[in-house]
Sequence to fold (210 residues):
Amino acid sequence: MHPDYSKDVFINCPFDEVYKDIFFAIIFTVFDCGCNARCALEIEDSSEVRIEKIAKIIKSCKYGIHDISLTELDKKTGLPRFNMPLELGMFLGAKRFGNHVQREKACLILDKERHRYQQFISDIAGQDIQSHQNNVHEVIKVIRNWLQNISQHSVIPGGNEILRRYQLLKADLPFLCEKLKLVTDELIFNDYINIISIWLKENPSFSFKG
Fold:
């Protein structure tokens, strides 16, 4: 993967197992729409402070997808996790206070219900928060429509088509993992984007540049 500011999309979302299908659907949709998915999981470097790593990735991405839907209390601590709102704040801060390149940033904010965020992060009221309803089809449609709106002179296939292709990838995943000597349930982020890259070369998406 070669960084490309104009096509790179920072993915800020839960990494929990229960969220995995939505996470994988987000990554696939971004790539199927002609962009590159980036996230904190792409680099594992114990010599680098995590927040610095995230800041570098945010700086290198023109776009961001931020899912703030996971607000449930941790069973062990009784406290919520604020990583997603924190990284959203970093992205918005880069857009607000950065140089002219950083001020070009655009982002999509997702929650499982459209106005639910007002109960726990009301400072972003007035921004267009989209709902994915914890549904893969809905998250694909919302991200596809957003990328279509921010793309310049591109025609991207509709959400139903991207969902169909995502389902095909899921069906092919065990065979691709076997071929690559990987275990489906143990895929890390970089494994998954490499598999998507291979799959897209064999199953190119239709897109039109006007």
